What we know:
The structure holds two protein chains of two kinds.
Chain A lengths: L9 H4 L7 H17 L32 E10 L7 E7 L4 E8 L12 E8 L4 E9 L12 E11 L9 H8 L2 E8 L9 E3 L6
Antiparallel strand pairs in A: 1-6, 1-8, 2-5, 2-7, 3-6, 4-5
Chain B lengths: L1 H11 L3 H12 L36 E2 L5 E4 L40 E2 L24 E3 L9 H6 L35 E3 L3 E11 L2 E11 L6 E8 L5 E9 L2 E4 L1 E4 H13 L3 E9 L2 E9 L4 E11 L1 E3 L2 E6 L16 E5 L17 E5 L4 E3 L2 E8 L5 E6 L4 E5 L5 E5 L10 E7 L7 E6 L5 E7 L13 E8 L7 H14 L7 E7 L3 E3 L5 E2 L2 H12 L9 H9 L8 E8 L6 H11 L4 E7 L5 H10 L3 E5 L5 H12 L5 E6 L4 E6 L12 E8 L5 E7 L2 E8 L1 E2 L7 H19 L5 H14 L7 E7 L10 E4 L17
Parallel strand pairs in B: 3-4, 5-19, 6-20, 8-41, 17-18, 25-39, 27-28, 27-31, 31-32, 32-33
Antiparallel strand pairs in B: 1-2, 2-21, 6-7, 7-14, 8-13, 9-10, 9-14, 11-40, 12-13, 12-40, 15-16, 16-24, 20-23, 21-24, 22-23, 25-26, 26-36, 28-29, 28-30, 34-37, 35-36, 37-38
Helix pairs in contact in B: 5-6, 5-10, 7-8, 8-9, 11-12
Amino acid sequence: MTSPHPPTNPSCLRSPRHLAVGRAATALLLLTTLCLILPTAPTSGVGPTTAPTSPQAIPLQRDGSPPAGHFFSIPITLDPQGQPLAAYQLELTATHGTFQIVGIENAPNLSAYPNPARYDRTTAHPDQPLDRLILADFSLAPPEDLPTEPTVIATVHAYVVPPQPLTNPTPENLIQALGLTTTLTQAANPQGQPITANVTLSNPTP
Amino acid sequence: MTRRRSLSAAALALLTCASLAIITACVASHDQTWLQSQTDGEGYAGRPDGYSYSGNDGEPGVLGSSALQGYFLDLDQMPANRAPVGAIPEPSLAPEPSAASTKGSLLTELEDIRMRQEAVPGKAQPAAKRTAPIAHAAPGEELWIISTPPQGDAASAASSPTDPTPESGALLALPQRKPDADPDAPRTTDLATETIPLPLKHTDVRAAITGYLATVDVTQQFHNPFDTKIEAVYVFPLPQDAAVSEFVMTIGDRQIRGLIREKEEAEQLYAQAKAQGYRAALLTQQRPNIFTQKVANIEPGKAIDISIRYFNTLAYAHGQYHFVFPIVVGPRFNPPHTQNPITPIAHGTPPQKPTDSIRGTPGTTTPYLKPHQRPGNDIALTVHLNPGVPLTATTSHSHPVTAQPQDDGSLNITLANESTIPNKDFVLSFKVTGDRINSGLVTHTDDSGQGYFSLMLFPPDDLQGLTRQPMEMVFVLDCSGSMSGKPIHQAKAAIKHALQQLQPDDTFQVIRFSQDASAFGPNPVPATPDNITKALKYVDNLRGSGGTHMIEGIRAALNFPHDPQRYRTVTFLTDGFIGNEQQILAAIHQDLGQARIFSFGVGSSPNRYLMNRMAKAGRGAAAYLALDDDATAIMDFYFQRIAHPAITDLNIDWGTMQIADVYPSRLPDLFVDRPVILTGTFTGKPSTVQVTGRAGRYDLFINPVTADTPPTPAGPELAQVWARQKIADLHDQLAHSETPDDLRHQIKTTALDYSLMSNYTAFLAVDTSEPTTGTHGVTVPVALPVPDGVRYDTTVPE
């Protein structure tokens, strides 16, 4: 058995000098758009969603007792409604209990976004362990390779402690107990123009 | 605003290569402008004469041996015919002998689970060959090795006097090696050499150098060749000024980006994840150049990769840039009362948890392989060198390498042999066209209006026309056990050459330290021929043994009356293998007086953090003396530098810029051929700055330095460069501060705001998709080879 060799940071190998000037300019435009929009972007049409995820087992501790907190993963699905998704930025917040993000996973089958999204983590409430996460990413893939259908663009891994102990700590119940919501700040097409999209905390509906 | 700035920087990081390329050209510019478009430089791909490579052995394609016994490439002396890329042959200079094979012996320490009290066979072996059942620790049970009964062939072969298996009473976990876990693992072919299978299988390093900035991606490939679940623990070095900003755990084709958190919080989350069976990774920092990687719940036969990205600025000296990738942590000596000790232990010895005797917090252990043992892991390293202007010479001082020119004028440099034993730093130097670099100022203002700058100051040429004043030279030689053998031989050769360079008006002293300190004489003596002859004999008789009580050497070197007629320089020659760096830096801060400290890191993997911080605290400079370097040439460089007065009392007129938070906070002196980089924040409009200083009796003006603002998105890295320097400076102040809690808070806040590693922050990644089955297994540390040239028997306690 041999260890799989990991991709060795394709973003480093993919030097910008190898990219066409036009595409680099497009990327710059997308990024600039996102950075400018971030503090003031309206959320109309891309409202918060708390759709349940598919059921996932919550393990017990090794000694059989319920754990103080739970680790669970939250798939984030983005539906660009038929438009090629070249860039996005979204926000994830919780309002109750403990919500500590411990990882941001890529979408392994999404070639246009091979790496985990970039993040900015802050604390929603200074006195409570409630993370507020901003995710953003862009792709320089050809438009035909960009997702146009509902797609899991990232999976957020988190450690949570609900405000009240749950007898049945399913992901749906945890999301509800934590008041977990996501808001799409902006999505854009390859030309850097905003597009209408929806974001949900769930796997895509078949 | 902070959030906005951070996110903007994070998003723009994907275009790092572009921004660095823009920064690149400035450094090698030939006029007063530091920044210059990359296209202004002439790439050597376009040279009409082409080139190929030639070493001293005459074989093309290999970077041959230099005057400093390194491996060099001099493009100006290349034959006219350019060698095809694919025609570069293998290096002719023999690399390290590749690791031979193994009996599969493995002893691992048990850290977090209890073991059952039961006799077990002595050596772990491939499962198919085992003749006796092996005991497995279970939760809530204790495992005591009562005896090691005789075994079959494998055991008898390993039961040599150097057999690391304890006889009785040792607490050890003995994971059984999975029979088909790794068919590629080397097998025993030579009883004299035993390859130890380790959870770290391979390290892949890819560095991209543009200008004076290096962006380095390090991928550590962990695997589990045993038949029980493990937690891998690996203590490894990075450059002391590395700004670690990315951390990704890869499981198959899934990549999980880690987040930076407060260290205690991250450690608690990691412990929870580990206990619940989730795969998790935690990166913590023990020193600015020593890190610990923990990877929990690696199942038998499975692999988990950890990718780290950092960037750092390259040192510039002797007309060359120097890229260093440290590969192994040398065994540290911890005097009593060392805070957060880093304690060497022999591979296979019972787990020990060194404790900080002051704060009661646990320290770090680093297990080392015995001389006949070889690590079962290797390393691949590639450097993409693209300074933006033509290269004139490239030298690998430490390893044989191969070089491949790229169409864009850059150069890909690769370790010639991946099976090289990872036991010495990789050091690459390169020179670009032009006589020298010039002073320059780069600025960047973020969305919030916060400005960052980086100012490189280069001493003026006319400094070389001034002669130095008489000197009081104090040589301090580390004579501890870790220096015995080749390191002390090199250091003594350097001192002896330096003694013979002294001028009649100079005075000198030679101090040695190990367990204690003693000196050539009670006071510095004139540099007469007779005194120098006696000193040469004194140095000749020095030997290396005992512990490294460097504080004794510091006190002996600094605590005597200053001769006002002479410029005192204290020259330290040491490998720096100590765990009490903070105590040393505090002593320098307290006792420096009018002296200047020049630190020489001796050996293949010196403690570069200590060397650089000693020099910075001592307002001098650091240099390095590798085992194969020409000690006389290194000392000649040194004397060239100190043969002219340094510019002291620097004063900077910032024009219209309102400056704050400048680092280093204590302005250093400017020595010939040694630029100084200052970084800080500002508000207002970038402007031209004017620098003045004194050189001996003369007031000096450095040419005005005009600000250059790189186009977006070249600037955001300046924010992290500044933040990293701020953290380093605050960390230095910790050594002597009366308000350490406030400093720690500032370090933590800065690290979190700019997503950087520090002593008080850590990167954490957890895969919560599904827990692994069974217990969380045993903790298996990655044993290290002692650095090349370092003697195991004088550095690792049995």
